[in-house]
Design goal:
Number of domains: 1
CATH superfamily: NAD(P)-binding Rossmann-like Domain
CATH class: Alpha Beta
Distance between the termini: 44 Å
CATH architecture: 3-Layer(aba) Sandwich
Shape: globular
Length: 272
C-alpha cells in the first residue's frame, strides 16, 4: 500500500486530501499542530504526526517519525497561512514569520525527504501553491510573496530532479472553501497596526469587512475536493504535469500573465 505524508491536515484542502487519498487506498500520514486535531485524524484511521513548520526541530522529528513507520512514497506540501494587510504596514518580523512556514519550513521538510526518495529511486512531491503565486492582488502582499518564492523554488527543484525518478508538481488553486480567512485573523491582529496606517479608512471600507464580516462564498469558489482530485492525479499519473490549475480564476490568471502587459494586469488586480 502506498504511503503519503500530507501537511496541514486540520481543515480545508489538507483534511479533504487526507480523507480522499485514504478512501483511494493510500496509507495517509497526516500532520497537524494541535493535539485535538492529531487525535481526530487518528480516530479516522490515519497516522498523524505533530508538525510546526516554523520549528526546524519539529520538522526533523516529523520526518524521523514518518520514516520510522515505513517507506514514504509521496509528500504533499499543503500547510500555509495568510497574513492580510498593506505591504507598507508589514514589519520585518511579520514577513519573517510567514516565510518560516510557507517557504522555509516547506523547503526544509522537502529536502529532508529527498534522500529517502533517492534511495528508493522514486518519489512524488506535490506542492500546493495558489493563484496568488501567479498574480498579485492588493492586501495579500506577504502571502503573494511566499507563493511566488515557492513557485520559483519548486520549478527549479523539478528541473534538478529530472532523471532521478522523483516527480515534482505544483497545484495552483484559486478560491477554495476553507478556513484560511478565519485563520488569518490572529496573524493580522498580531502584526498589523491598521489604526495607525495612512490607509486606515481603506481598511475599514474593505479589508476589515472581508475579514470580520464575510458575505458568503467568493465568486467561482470550489470545494476542497476539486484540489484533492488534482493531488491524486499528480500522485498517480505516469508522467504528472508540472502544474495543475484549479478554478476559473487560476486558469484566467495563468493565461493573462503570459499575454497581457503589466499595466493591464495591474488594472485587473486592482478590481479584485
Amino acid at each position: 500500500m502506498r504511503r503519503v505524508l500530507i501537511t496541514g491536515c486540520s481543515s480545508g484542502i489538507g483534511l479533504d486530501a487526507a480523507r480522499h487519498l485514504q478512501a483511494q487506498g493510500w496509507r495517509v500520514v497526516a500532520t497537524c499542530r494541535s493535539p485535538e486535531d492529531i487525535a481526530a485524524r487518528r480516530a479516522e484511521g490515519m497516522e498523524c504526526l505533530s508538525l510546526d513548520l516554523a520549528d526546524p526541530e519539529s520538522v526533523a522529528a516529523c520526518v524521523r517519525d514518518a520514516l520510522a513507520g515505513g517507506p514514504v512514497d509521496a509528500l504533499v506540501n499543503n500547510a500555509a497561512f495568510a497574513l492580510p494587510g498593506a505591504v507598507e504596514d508589514m514589519p520585518r518580523d511579520a514577513l519573517r514569520a510567514i516565510f518560516e512556514v510557507n517557504l522555509f519550513g516547506t523547503h526544509d521538510l522537502t529536502r529532508r525527504l529527498i534522500p529517502h526518495f533517492r534511495d528508493r529511486g522514486a518519489g512524488r512531491i506535490v506542492t500546493i501553491s495558489s493563484v496568488l503565486g501567479l498574480v498579485g492582488i492588493p492586501w495579500r502582499g506577504p502571502y503573494v510573496a511566499t507563493k511566488f518564492a515557492l513557485e520559483g523554488l519548486t520549478d527549479v527543484l523539478r528541473l534538478e530532479m529530472h532523471g532521478t525518478g522523483i516527480h515534482v508538481t505544483l497545484i495552483e488553486p484559486g478560491p477554495i472553501t476553507s478556513r484560511i480567512r478565519e485563520n488569518a485573523i490572529p496573524h493580522f491582529e498580531r502584526w498589523v497596526d491598521w489604526r495607525a496606517s495612512p490607509r486606515a479608512d481603506q481598511y475599514r471600507a474593505s479589508l476589515l469587512k472581508r475579514l470580520y464580516e464575510p458575505s458568503g462564498k467568493d465568486r467561482f469558489e470550489l470545494p476542497p475536493r476539486s484540489v484533492s482530485e488534482r493531488i491524486l492525479t499528480a500522485l498517480t499519473a505516469g508522467t504528472p504535469a508540472p502544474r495543475y490549475y484549479v478554478t476559473t480564476p487560476t486558469r484566467i490568471s495563468g493565461v493573462a500573465r503570459r499575454v497581457l502587459p503589466t499595466r493591464a494586469l495591474d488594472w485587473f488586480a486592482r478590481r479584485n
